[in-house]
Amino acid sequence: MTQSGGGPAITPRTRARARHILDNYYIGPSRDSSVLEIWGYTPKMTYAPGERVALHVSTTALEWDLEIGRDGLKYLPRLEEKGLPGNHHPTPEDCSVNGCGWPEAYAFTIPQDWEPGGYLFTLRARCGDDMVEEHHLILVRSASDAPPRSYVLVCATGTWVAYNCWGGSNHYEGITGPNGNAFSPVLSTQRPWTRGFCKLPEGAPRALTDHPPHPGDMVRYPYMEWAYAYGYSKKYASAGWASYERHFARWSEAEGYDFDVVALHDLESEPALLSRYACAVFVGHDEYWSASMRDAVDSYVENGGNVARFAGNFLWQIRIEDEGRRQICYKYTADQDTLAGTDKAHLVTGAWEVDPVNRPGALTFGVNALRGVYAGLGNCVGRGAGGFTVYRPEHWAFEGAQIGYGDVFGAASRIFGYEVDGLDYQFEDGLPFPTCTDGAIPDIQILAMGLATNIEVDHDVWGETLYIGATDAAFKATVLYGEVTPKTLDACARGNGMIVSWKRGKGEIFTAGTCEWIMGLTRRDSQVEKITRNVLDRFGTA
Questions:
Q1: Which pTM does this prediction carry?
Q2: Tens-digit pLDDT profile for residues 430-454
Q3: What angle do CA 383, 281, 447 make, to 5 degrees?
Q4: What is the pLDDT of residue 20?
Q5: Beta bridge partners of 449
């Protein structure tokens, strides 16, 4: 959900491949044949054994090398080519919106023995002693006739597309509009992933700092500072395989869980896809969904499927068009959506919880985004606990985790943030219950909570520049309360993130509404790991 932010100038070496126009720092092509560069993309996000993969590449080098490997618990090289002929192709200025249109440069067929997972493409180009390396990623899933696995990891590709700044525009900032400085409500999937979505160096900062700041410290956003310094997208910490799904995939493989891997976009074209699995898992920052994607999950749960959602910020409705090649989301300008005022206004690409969509996220996952949103990011609950306070320790998810009423877990591993989902609630005898004024139903059990906000507090530190400020609070005040006043802004200063449990139809849902749950696994937080195992073990054998 994060808004725009500025940054310092970048180094001459990366200047051609990382642009900083007005307040929009982005990654893209140099459009200069004298600059050594290489980029590539594939038409689809997901492939199965036996399917043909076409790689579209533009490079200023005469030759280029390719390596493809499975990015699992251990990186496993599976294919290598050297000395492929290089060609530099024109890249349209509107490539973010309408695609790059590069011709196919290389193709291969997925072998039958490739296991499900994320497959990293490493593209290298050389000129004399100079070398550049960029990356692409595809998801390989099981063949349709393969024995079904118990679990499927559904990667948040709607959010990947929304934050992908390659070429200049995403759903946050852009080079569109009459002044060339507007975000784009229309995005193409036919372009490279931005730098940092597919692969990151060890130690790249996350959106949440490792420790809360000390009182009096100037607010810092280390992930953006790092991105500017090293020529990575400033959105790398908000979306992508490298920051989120990769962590869960590696942990689950080490634990022995047998996962398939698909893209969220696959649910758009194959609504019955989830029926093959006992448990569907969603992790990380999972903000953008279409109505068809939600329909697929709702039907799956009603018919006996189980959903484990260790993810946050379920906020925006999108539309997928042109057989998956185009994603649409008007967001804050939803009144300009072409479907506004029509008999399909319920498909307008705005927030789920407000007119004309009116389909709160709580109806699918038990929590809502606008009852969050920020925690641990800058001065947004910047000195909060960093974990969840438990209110129903007797719940099966906490069995064996040594958790009691009022305990906070996940604080040391910083699992609470950077965006969280919650509900309107009330306390009765020390226990939280949904008020059911926001789409929630009484059957939803609130197991644990933490506090969030939509306003980044200003501590009057001299020289400090806030990133979030009060922009999102004004939007929330408008859509939830109808006007922006001191009273409605004050109401928007208070939010929450929740863990909820819910039996629905023949299935069951467990939601830990936070983006950073996966860091509890990566950092080997024993309580977070135990809860995750409890959920997977229960849901995978149902």
A1: 0.95
A2: 999 999 999 999 999 999 999 999 9
A3: 50
A4: 46
A5: 389, 498
